[in-house]
Amino acid sequence: MLPRHQWYQKNISVAVSRFPWAATLNPTLSSRIEVLPARNSETTVKLRNILIHSTYDPSKEAEQFAQKVQSGDCVFLYGFGLGYHVSAILDRLGPGGVLHVIELNYNLLSAAMILRDQTQVLADPRLHLVFGNNEEEVAARIQASLKPFGDPSTPFQVLFHNPSFQCLPPEFPRIATALEMLLMERRFPTVLGDKEEINYLYNQNLTRITPGINRLKGTHQGRIAVLASAGPSLDNALPYLRSLGNGAVIACVDTALSILSREGIVPDYVFSLDPQDISIHHFRVPVAPKTRLIFTPTVCAQIAHGFPHDKFVVFKEGHRLFREKIDLLNEKGTTPAGGSVACMGLDVLIQMGCNPILLTGQDCAFTGGRTYSRWARTCLGHIDQIDRVQTLDASHLLDRRRGKQLTVQRTDGGDVPTSQVMYGYLRGIEEIAREHPDVRIYNVASQGARIDHVSTLGSIGELVRLMN
After folding, report:
1. Which of 62, 213, 381, 438 lies in disulfide reach of 333, CB 3.0 to 4.6 Å?
2. What is the pLDDT of residues 426-464, one digit of tens each?
């Protein structure tokens, strides 16, 4: 076996030819790294008292980690560690697979180059490795790495090497939050997978005979639209929504339906995607014939079948249940927006041709210490019964109680607390707005989080001037 410094030189010579940033890695092992011999004579390490690989058999552990990867997959992985699992994934990918790896811990990545022969892994053209010291530059590289995952026809896996993820440096707070959101999104189908599959089974025939959102594309070209969510700022906008009359397309997420109904406001569209039975509470109000439902095929079957008026279906791009149904997706229509029903609603309104689009109740933060409109209590009281992971909407409230918060910039320039889930919603809206610079999107009367690429209308007076 070569001395450690010789492994480093061999590894770096290969790495730099493909990843120029590798030249910045350290040939000296950090004092924070504790090297441990595994029982099978391989090497493992501890960092921050976190064991990175097994002390018994790191290679066998790596094979178990990679066992769900299939030939031809496109894999997004956080955590290079010492590379055992990276090699195991490459062994399973086949010639058509691709592996995108992010590792932001400088000391850990340097240790990987010092302690093990990585030359075969680093030279593999299927490997794309992201590292950097500047958060903005790294974010751009990560975004480029995620582009292949936008193709619904591409089989993909999102994996986190948890010990490496626990060692993510504090210098990357926004990336850490974004990765945690991605981790939550990947766990979401695992937790609710059975519910989604059962709903899709019940909704399958309905989905086939229901028109898709492709039928609605361009139908409201150039019309102003309002998308109402159930955040605290909805309270300020409610008195004025009725005055928009027939001049605007009124849409809402399902959590806001009963609030609008209470005010005598009849939406043109209501959006719903929650697979849980408990979400039918949002629809236990009189629904006017003009209100149309736009739903995903995995929505609670009682909502999809029980809605009494016109409805349209939209498929989520890349969803595991629909990857093979390309013809059906092309026929009905898709949305790239996931997680938040508001993101789905915004994307669909853009597909309808609406411009401008006014967001109300879209705080993405604990505005005034609250998560929802004050009128939401009666229709959302059941949220206390739901575990945090089981519904992304419910996790707003429970995240706050558990104290896991972060601070974002408020619309007036100050700071406001938010949760990781709402931060994910915020980023989702920003991404949609960034992708559609020709669509004017306004956040009305919000004192919540500032949303990049979305203009803030600070007062109802500004809204009135816009309407006139």
Report:
1. 213
2. 888 888 998 999 999 999 877 788 888 998 886 656 666
Rg (CA), the chain: 24
Let me know: does 357 contact 350? Beta carbons within 8 Å. yes
Amino acid, res. 152:
P
pLDDT tens per residue, range 121-171: 999 999 999 998 888 888 887 777 766 555 545 567 788 898 999 899 988
**Which parts of 66-208 are beta strand (E)?**
74-78, 98-102, 127-130, 156-160
Burial (CB < 10 A; 0-12, 13-18, 19+), residue 343, is buried
| Secondary element (H or E) of residue 348 | helix 341-351
The answer to whether 199 touches 274, Cβ cutoff 8 Å, is no
Whether the link from the prior residue into 356 is cis, omega within 30° of 0, is: yes
Q: If 0-12 CB within 10 Å is exposed, 13-18 middle and 19+ buried, where does residue 113 land?
A: buried
Question: What does DSSP assign to residue 413?
Answer: S
pTM, whole model, 2 decimals?
Answer: 0.63
- Look up residue 66 and give its DSSP letter: T
Backbone phi, then psi, for 202, in 5-degree steps?
Answer: -70, -35
